[in-house]
Amino acid sequence: MDILRFATAGSVDDGKSTLIGRLLFDSKAIFEDQLEAVERTSRDRGTEYTDLSLLTDGLRAEREQGITIDVAYRYFATPRRKFIIADTPGHIQYTRNMVTGASTADLAIILIDARKGVLEQSRRHAFLTSLLRVPHLVLAVNKMDLVDYSEERFEEIREEFTAFASKLNVADLTFIPISALNGDNVVSRSENMPWYNGSSLLHHLENVHIASDRNLVDVRFPVQYVIRPQKATDHAFHDYRGYAGQVAGGVLKPGDEVVHLPSGLATRIASIDTFDGPVEEAFPPMSVTLRFEDDIDISRGDMIARPNNQPQVSQDLEAMVCWMSDGARLAPRSKLAIKHTTRTARALVRDLHYRLDVNTLHRDEEATSLGLNEIGRVSLRVTQPLFVDDYARNRLTGGFILVDEATNGTVGAGMIIEAH
Amino acid sequence: MLQRDYTTSQLDVLEAEAIHIMREVAAEFERPCLLFSGGKDSIVMLRIAEKAFWPAAIPFPLMHVDTGHNFDEVIEFRDRRAAELGARLIVASVQDSIDAGRVTEETGRRASRNRLQTTTLLDAIEEHEFDAVFGGARRDEEKARAKERVFSFRDDFGQWDPKNQRPELWNLYNARIRKGEHIRVFPLSNWTELDVWDYIRREGIEIPSIYFSHTRKVFERDGMLLPDSEVVRRGDDEPLFEAVVRYRTVGDMTCTGAVQSTAATVEEIIEEIAATRITERGATRADDRSSEAAMEDRKREGYF
């Protein structure tokens, strides 16, 4: 059994909570006491139906205001897969939450109300999904029961959305007509839409191929922690020196020739160690410890790659940045802390090239700063070299966060376009 | 684990993520500690810590907030496990907080030291100047927890502000704090109860005996089976009876209920959990029943 992480975007009006509620309920991930609590609250508030959104709206402030503020993580499993849902609110002011939820997602589900068709909000969600390079996108056309299960309506929406998506980087786009309320095409194929030949949503989630979404080509191992037992658990390890980290790309094997950055020195992997014994291969997302044949000075923040396949080593980055702070704005000359893989440095915003309108994709080159939930293209100068790849090639070595040094808040998420 | 397309099992993915989180903390903080209660989640967390730093010893101490109302079997297990690992175990005692006048014991039949733990915990964090504190909480446990970050920022007062959380993207965690503030770190955030048990089975990890079926004198309160113990106040209208039970969660005796069960092995427990229709906290924790936002309110105050 493997794991599929997916993000859902849409508002309560689109039936998102109902859809999640149904997936959880039909996979037995909602328990009786949770359902009773939701029914009790629905009754207390005078709601006539059992409001499944109460399952996901966890915080008091959210219940009081009837809105979803934050990303909620939900879990369910079928015999085929374990699923982690990052349930993100759909409203524009929560762009940062959608970006957060999408950053680790293998797949995104965007809900569209069949009666309303493709809205500004749907386009925004699709754009963010593509910006964050979520490999698989499902457009769930919901409330098909309210349009008489019309194939024509479904095709209209499909055509309109496909035309828009052609402007984006969407690798795998699937359209599924559903009724979350009635369960049509959610868990099993619906008899109400004989014209639809595709999978049910759950069947698609269970079978979509994600193993090759990881980058298994470019060896990237950001050194996270140096293991040098002061007080070894065993005297045999007295002289042990290992470099621990999580593989961010490629497949590593003992004997492989590798290069250490920033030194540029080449060596070979002597052993790939784990608590459970040495392993013959390491690949994403494994956390392992490498030992090398040569004694090189290696510390946290360094990178291991292949001599003939190295990341860019650069202090000048071009990136798309989503600004997440409601305090200070991002503007040229802003100074921030940057965390990229295991390396932290300081960054200076040299230029803001444009602000992108996430609804129309229009580039506003007159913009002088970015505010909360705004996205723009920036040039950064970093105090130390970073070992980077284009975000499109590797999300782990192409993504970074920006931290406000005064408040210590995480204020920006960046995706590297190119390095110089 | 390894197939031709490099598919990784869910337990391997979760373990790799948790190891990454632990190493991140060890690298970025000066004084981390790991909350170890002897319960199943903290036992799994401790195994992850062993794996993350092997062959070196775990580079931080363990801490237990002891209400003085814990099960003997669990306390014995806690001490033995810490000794086996050669780990330093700090016991922060709620009784000491009461004796020092920091908190006042609740009175009445339902008196519990559950809420008092928060003060003891925060005092200990301050006393030892811990800047990162690992907890075994999982997001599937409770809806306030479903929205909590892996690195959860706490201010000078140990408070959690759910509306002002730091966005968490990819596997990048923001570890920056000022002196006096700290981060609660939850490496098992993405694990479910079943994942924890699957992992215990796969790793062959020892757990305290009260997780397995045994005969115990209990009484019923609010549909929960509470143990016969001098620390649990029982009314005359709450008769004792013998039942075949086990514990699904391990906490303070005054607010942790047993479930009727004949599951005597980890395999049988997994079968039982896979079939159950009640969450672990709903089945066994009186502390979550006081109001709909009971956990959220306690977390805001600085609870685990």
Automatic annotation (TrEMBL), chain A:
Binding sites annotated in the UniProt record for GTP: 10-17, 87-91, 142-145
Entry keyword annotation includes Glycosyltransferase: no
Domain annotation Tr-type G: ranges: 1-214
Sorted UniProt keywords: ATP-binding, GTP-binding, Nucleotide-binding, Nucleotidyltransferase, Transferase
A Pfam family this chain is assigned to: GTP_EFTU
Keyword Nucleotide-binding: yes
Taxonomic superkingdom: Bacteria
GO molecular function (one): sulfate adenylyltransferase (ATP) activity
InterPro entries cross-referenced by the UniProt entry: CysN_GTP-bd, CysN_II, CysN_NoDQ_III, G_TR_CS, GTP-eEF1A_C, P-loop_NTPase, Small_GTP-bd, SO4_adenylTrfase_lsu
Recorded metabolic or biological pathway in which this protein acts: Sulfur metabolism; hydrogen sulfide biosynthesis; sulfite from sulfate: step 1/3
Enzyme Commission identifier(s): 2.7.7.4
Reaction equation(s) it catalyzes: sulfate + ATP + H(+) = adenosine 5'-phosphosulfate + diphosphate
Family: Belongs to the TRAFAC class translation factor GTPase superfamily. Classic translation factor GTPase family. CysN/NodQ subfamily.
Known function: With CysD forms the ATP sulfurylase (ATPS) that catalyzes the adenylation of sulfate producing adenosine 5'-phosphosulfate (APS) and diphosphate, the first enzymatic step in sulfur assimilation pathway. APS synthesis involves the formation of a high-energy phosphoric-sulfuric acid anhydride bond driven by GTP hydrolysis by CysN coupled to ATP hydrolysis by CysD.
Quaternary structure note: Heterodimer composed of CysD, the smaller subunit, and CysN.
Protein name, per record: Sulfate adenylyltransferase subunit 1
Gene: cysN
Automatic annotation (TrEMBL), chain B:
EC numbers for this chain: 2.7.7.4
Region Disordered, residue ranges: 281-304
Domain (Phosphoadenosine phosphosulphate reductase): residue spans on this chain: 32-257
InterPro entries per UniProt: PAPS_reduct_dom, Rossmann-like_a/b/a_fold, SO4_adenylTrfase_ssu, Sulfate_adenylyltrnsfr_sub2
Secretion signal, residue range per the UniProt entry: none
One Pfam family matching this protein: PAPS_reduct
The entry's keywords: ATP-binding, Nucleotide-binding, Nucleotidyltransferase, Transferase
UniProt GO molecular function: sulfate adenylyltransferase (ATP) activity
Family statement drawn from the similarity comment of this UniProt entry: Belongs to the PAPS reductase family. CysD subfamily.
Protein name (Swiss-Prot/TrEMBL): Sulfate adenylyltransferase subunit 2
